[in-house]
Protein backbone atom coordinates (compact mmCIF):
# COMPACT_ATOMS: atom_id res chain seq x y z
CA UNK A 1 0.00 0.00 0.00
CA UNK A 2 1.26 3.51 -0.87
CA UNK A 3 0.49 5.84 2.04
CA UNK A 4 0.38 9.62 2.46
CA UNK A 5 0.85 10.77 6.05
CA UNK A 6 -1.05 14.03 6.64
CA UNK A 7 0.46 15.17 9.93
CA UNK A 8 3.91 13.85 10.69
CA UNK A 9 4.20 14.23 14.44
CA UNK A 10 4.23 11.60 17.19
CA UNK A 11 1.51 9.48 15.55
CA UNK A 12 2.77 10.01 12.00
CA UNK A 13 6.20 8.70 12.96
CA UNK A 14 4.86 5.59 14.72
CA UNK A 15 2.60 4.84 11.72
CA UNK A 16 5.56 5.27 9.36
CA UNK A 17 7.65 2.80 11.38
CA UNK A 18 4.91 0.14 11.57
CA UNK A 19 3.88 0.66 7.92
CA UNK A 20 7.42 0.20 6.63
CA UNK A 21 7.91 -2.87 8.82
CA UNK A 22 4.76 -4.34 7.21
CA UNK A 23 6.11 -3.66 3.69
CA UNK A 24 4.06 -0.53 2.92
CA UNK A 25 5.54 2.59 1.33
CA UNK A 26 5.26 6.17 2.58
CA UNK A 27 4.99 8.27 -0.60
CA UNK A 28 4.09 11.66 0.91
CA UNK A 29 4.22 13.42 4.26
CA UNK A 30 2.81 16.76 5.48
CA UNK A 31 3.56 18.72 8.60
CA UNK A 32 2.85 22.30 9.70
CA UNK A 33 5.90 23.82 8.07
CA UNK A 34 6.23 21.70 4.93
CA UNK A 35 5.78 18.51 2.98
CA UNK A 36 7.55 15.80 1.02
CA UNK A 37 6.30 13.67 -1.87
CA UNK A 38 3.00 13.99 -3.74
CA UNK A 39 -0.43 13.20 -2.26
CA UNK A 40 -1.74 11.94 -5.63
CA UNK A 41 0.82 9.10 -5.62
CA UNK A 42 -0.89 7.52 -2.59
CA UNK A 43 -3.46 4.68 -2.47
CA UNK A 44 -4.66 5.96 0.88
CA UNK A 45 -4.03 8.89 3.25
CA UNK A 46 -3.69 8.63 7.02
CA UNK A 47 -4.47 11.91 8.78
CA UNK A 48 -3.17 12.57 12.31
CA UNK A 49 -2.52 16.32 12.48
CA UNK A 50 -4.28 19.02 14.51
CA UNK A 51 -7.95 20.06 14.98
CA UNK A 52 -7.58 23.16 12.76
CA UNK A 53 -5.90 21.22 9.93
CA UNK A 54 -7.92 17.99 9.71
CA UNK A 55 -10.92 19.20 7.70
CA UNK A 56 -8.72 20.88 5.06
CA UNK A 57 -6.73 17.65 4.66
CA UNK A 58 -9.91 15.55 4.36
CA UNK A 59 -11.36 17.86 1.68
CA UNK A 60 -8.09 17.70 -0.25
CA UNK A 61 -8.32 13.90 -0.22
CA UNK A 62 -11.94 14.01 -1.48
CA UNK A 63 -10.79 16.26 -4.36
CA UNK A 64 -7.86 13.97 -5.14
CA UNK A 65 -10.13 10.85 -4.88
CA UNK A 66 -7.91 9.31 -2.23
CA UNK A 67 -9.54 7.44 0.67
CA UNK A 68 -8.66 9.04 3.98
CA UNK A 69 -8.37 7.51 7.44
CA UNK A 70 -8.59 10.27 10.04
CA UNK A 71 -7.63 10.06 13.70
CA UNK A 72 -7.34 13.77 14.50
CA UNK A 73 -9.80 14.76 17.21
CA UNK A 74 -11.31 18.13 18.11
CA UNK A 75 -13.11 18.91 14.80
CA UNK A 76 -16.33 16.89 15.32
CA UNK A 77 -18.66 19.90 15.06
CA UNK A 78 -17.88 19.73 11.32
CA UNK A 79 -18.37 15.97 11.02
CA UNK A 80 -21.92 16.24 9.61
CA UNK A 81 -21.00 18.75 6.89
CA UNK A 82 -17.86 16.75 6.01
CA UNK A 83 -19.94 13.53 5.76
CA UNK A 84 -22.37 15.34 3.44
CA UNK A 85 -19.51 16.53 1.27
CA UNK A 86 -18.11 13.00 1.21
CA UNK A 87 -21.43 11.69 -0.17
CA UNK A 88 -21.65 14.51 -2.75
CA UNK A 89 -18.10 13.93 -3.98
CA UNK A 90 -18.23 10.09 -3.76
CA UNK A 91 -15.31 10.34 -1.38
CA UNK A 92 -14.11 7.90 1.27
CA UNK A 93 -13.62 8.74 4.94
CA UNK A 94 -13.02 6.59 7.97
CA UNK A 95 -12.94 8.51 11.24
CA UNK A 96 -12.25 7.04 14.67
CA UNK A 97 -11.77 9.01 17.85
CA UNK A 98 -9.60 6.08 18.91
CA UNK A 99 -8.04 3.49 16.59
CA UNK A 100 -6.97 1.13 19.34
CA UNK A 101 -8.70 -2.23 18.90
CA UNK A 102 -8.84 -2.52 22.71
CA UNK A 103 -10.71 0.79 22.86
CA UNK A 104 -13.13 -0.36 20.18
CA UNK A 105 -13.94 -3.38 22.37
CA UNK A 106 -14.18 -0.99 25.33
CA UNK A 107 -16.71 1.10 23.32
CA UNK A 108 -18.73 -2.05 22.76
CA UNK A 109 -18.71 -2.88 26.50
CA UNK A 110 -19.57 0.74 27.33
CA UNK A 111 -22.61 0.59 25.07
CA UNK A 112 -23.79 -2.69 26.64
CA UNK A 113 -23.23 -1.35 30.15
CA UNK A 114 -25.13 1.89 29.39
CA UNK A 115 -28.07 -0.11 28.03
CA UNK A 116 -28.12 -2.20 31.25
CA UNK A 117 -27.87 0.88 33.48
CA UNK A 118 -30.88 2.63 31.97
CA UNK A 119 -33.13 0.71 34.40
CA UNK A 120 -31.02 1.71 37.43
CA UNK A 121 -31.20 5.48 37.80
CA UNK A 122 -29.73 5.34 41.34
CA UNK A 123 -26.31 5.03 39.67
CA UNK A 124 -24.78 8.31 38.52
CA UNK A 125 -22.48 7.96 35.47
CA UNK A 126 -19.25 9.89 35.01
CA UNK A 127 -16.20 9.72 32.71
CA UNK A 128 -12.57 10.48 33.40
CA UNK A 129 -9.87 10.80 30.72
CA UNK A 130 -6.14 11.35 31.27
CA UNK A 131 -3.75 12.38 28.47
CA UNK A 132 -0.29 13.88 28.01
CA UNK A 133 0.15 17.62 28.54
CA UNK A 134 0.60 18.33 24.78
CA UNK A 135 -2.97 17.35 23.85
CA UNK A 136 -4.78 20.33 22.33
CA UNK A 137 -8.46 19.38 22.79
CA UNK A 138 -10.49 18.54 25.91
CA UNK A 139 -12.38 16.39 26.52
CA UNK A 140 -10.75 13.76 24.31
CA UNK A 141 -12.59 12.53 21.22
CA UNK A 142 -12.64 9.11 22.90
CA UNK A 143 -14.41 10.52 25.97
CA UNK A 144 -16.99 12.18 23.71
CA UNK A 145 -17.54 8.84 21.93
CA UNK A 146 -17.93 7.13 25.32
CA UNK A 147 -20.51 9.71 26.38
CA UNK A 148 -22.82 9.03 23.43
CA UNK A 149 -24.47 5.74 24.58
CA UNK A 150 -24.64 7.02 28.17
CA UNK A 151 -26.54 10.12 26.99
CA UNK A 152 -28.74 7.90 24.84
CA UNK A 153 -29.68 5.35 27.52
CA UNK A 154 -29.25 7.03 30.92
CA UNK A 155 -30.61 10.22 32.52
CA UNK A 156 -27.94 12.84 31.62
CA UNK A 157 -28.83 14.93 28.58
CA UNK A 158 -25.42 16.39 27.82
CA UNK A 159 -21.82 16.18 28.99
CA UNK A 160 -20.00 18.87 30.91
CA UNK A 161 -16.40 19.51 31.88
CA UNK A 162 -17.60 21.10 35.11
CA UNK A 163 -17.82 19.23 38.37
CA UNK A 164 -21.54 19.51 39.10
CA UNK A 165 -24.11 17.47 41.05
CA UNK A 166 -26.88 17.63 38.45
CA UNK A 167 -28.29 14.34 37.14
CA UNK A 168 -29.13 16.03 33.81
CA UNK A 169 -25.38 16.48 33.19
CA UNK A 170 -22.71 13.86 32.55
CA UNK A 171 -19.44 15.03 34.12
CA UNK A 172 -16.27 14.40 32.10
CA UNK A 173 -13.07 15.04 34.01
CA UNK A 174 -10.19 15.78 31.62
CA UNK A 175 -6.77 15.50 33.28
CA UNK A 176 -3.46 16.37 31.58
CA UNK A 177 -0.41 14.65 33.06
CA UNK A 178 3.14 14.06 31.79
CA UNK A 179 3.30 11.79 28.75
CA UNK A 180 0.23 9.60 29.45
CA UNK A 181 -0.89 7.90 26.21
CA UNK A 182 -4.58 7.83 27.11
CA UNK A 183 -6.59 6.41 30.01
CA UNK A 184 -10.40 6.39 29.99
CA UNK A 185 -12.67 5.34 32.85
CA UNK A 186 -16.45 5.10 32.87
CA UNK A 187 -17.94 4.90 36.35
CA UNK A 188 -21.44 4.43 37.72
CA UNK A 189 -21.70 5.45 41.37
CA UNK A 190 -24.53 4.80 43.79
CA UNK A 191 -24.78 5.23 47.56
CA UNK A 192 -24.30 1.46 47.91
CA UNK A 193 -21.56 0.61 45.42
CA UNK A 194 -19.81 1.56 42.17
CA UNK A 195 -19.19 -0.10 38.80
CA UNK A 196 -16.18 0.96 36.73
CA UNK A 197 -14.71 0.02 33.36
CA UNK A 198 -11.31 1.32 32.33
CA UNK A 199 -9.01 1.29 29.31
CA UNK A 200 -5.36 2.26 29.52
CA UNK A 201 -3.17 2.68 26.42
CA UNK A 202 0.41 1.54 27.13
CA UNK A 203 1.86 3.02 23.92
CA UNK A 204 0.90 4.75 20.67
CA UNK A 205 1.44 1.56 18.67
CA UNK A 206 -2.14 0.38 19.26
CA UNK A 207 -3.53 3.51 17.56
CA UNK A 208 -1.08 3.21 14.67
CA UNK A 209 -1.76 -0.50 14.20
CA UNK A 210 -5.54 0.15 14.10
CA UNK A 211 -5.13 3.05 11.65
CA UNK A 212 -3.08 0.83 9.30
CA UNK A 213 -5.67 -1.94 9.52
CA UNK A 214 -8.36 0.65 8.66
CA UNK A 215 -6.27 1.94 5.73
CA UNK A 216 -5.94 -1.57 4.28
CA UNK A 217 -9.70 -2.15 4.72
CA UNK A 218 -10.90 1.15 3.20
CA UNK A 219 -9.14 1.01 -0.18
CA UNK A 220 -11.70 0.46 -2.95
CA UNK A 221 -14.70 1.63 -0.87
CA UNK A 222 -16.71 4.88 -0.94
CA UNK A 223 -18.68 6.45 1.91
CA UNK A 224 -18.21 7.26 5.58
CA UNK A 225 -17.06 4.45 7.88
CA UNK A 226 -15.95 3.82 11.44
CA UNK A 227 -13.79 1.20 13.15
CA UNK A 228 -17.01 -0.67 13.98
CA UNK A 229 -17.22 -1.49 10.26
CA UNK A 230 -13.59 -2.61 10.10
CA UNK A 231 -13.95 -4.86 13.16
CA UNK A 232 -17.48 -6.08 12.38
CA UNK A 233 -18.83 -4.69 15.66
CA UNK A 234 -21.97 -3.22 14.08
N1 LIG B 1 -7.79 8.58 16.92
C1 LIG B 1 -6.75 8.07 17.60
O1 LIG B 1 -6.64 6.86 17.82
C2 LIG B 1 -5.69 9.02 18.09
C3 LIG B 1 -4.56 8.55 18.78
C4 LIG B 1 -3.55 9.46 19.13
C5 LIG B 1 -3.69 10.80 18.79
N2 LIG B 1 -4.81 11.21 18.15
C6 LIG B 1 -4.98 12.60 17.68
O2 LIG B 1 -4.19 12.73 16.52
C7 LIG B 1 -3.76 14.08 16.39
C8 LIG B 1 -2.24 14.11 16.22
O3 LIG B 1 -1.62 13.54 17.36
P1 LIG B 1 -0.02 13.53 17.54
O4 LIG B 1 0.20 13.00 18.89
O5 LIG B 1 0.64 12.91 16.37
O6 LIG B 1 0.25 15.11 17.51
P2 LIG B 1 1.62 15.88 17.20
O7 LIG B 1 2.79 15.07 17.63
O8 LIG B 1 1.44 17.25 17.76
O9 LIG B 1 1.68 15.95 15.60
C9 LIG B 1 0.79 16.73 14.87
C10 LIG B 1 1.32 16.82 13.47
O10 LIG B 1 0.41 17.58 12.68
C11 LIG B 1 1.15 18.60 12.02
N3 LIG B 1 0.30 19.77 11.75
C12 LIG B 1 -0.21 20.66 12.62
N4 LIG B 1 -0.90 21.59 11.95
C13 LIG B 1 -0.80 21.27 10.63
C14 LIG B 1 -1.25 21.88 9.43
N5 LIG B 1 -1.97 23.00 9.44
N6 LIG B 1 -0.97 21.27 8.26
C15 LIG B 1 -0.25 20.13 8.22
N7 LIG B 1 0.23 19.52 9.32
C16 LIG B 1 -0.05 20.11 10.50
C17 LIG B 1 2.28 18.95 12.98
O11 LIG B 1 3.30 19.61 12.25
P3 LIG B 1 4.68 20.05 12.98
O12 LIG B 1 5.45 18.76 13.15
O13 LIG B 1 5.32 20.95 11.98
O14 LIG B 1 4.29 20.70 14.26
C18 LIG B 1 2.67 17.53 13.39
O15 LIG B 1 3.46 16.92 12.39
C19 LIG B 1 -4.30 14.79 17.63
O16 LIG B 1 -5.55 15.38 17.31
C20 LIG B 1 -4.52 13.67 18.63
O17 LIG B 1 -5.51 13.97 19.58
C21 LIG B 1 -5.80 10.35 17.79
Order of helices and strands: EHEEEHEHEHEHEEEEHEH
- The number of helical elements comes to 7
Report the CATH C-level class of the largest domain: Alpha Beta
- Extract low-pLDDT stretches: none
Layout of helices and strands, plus pairs?
Layout: E1 2-6, H1 10-21, E2 25-31, E3 34-37, E4 44-47, H2 51-64, E5 68-70, H3 79-88, E6 92-95, H4 101-117, E7 124-131, H5 141-153, E8 158-160, E9 169-176, E10 183-189, E11 194-200, H6 205-218, E12 223-225, H7 227-230
Parallel strand pairs: 1-2, 1-4, 4-5, 5-6, 6-12, 7-9, 8-9
Antiparallel strand pairs: 2-3, 7-10, 10-11
Bound molecules: NADP nicotinamide-adenine-dinucleotide phosphate.
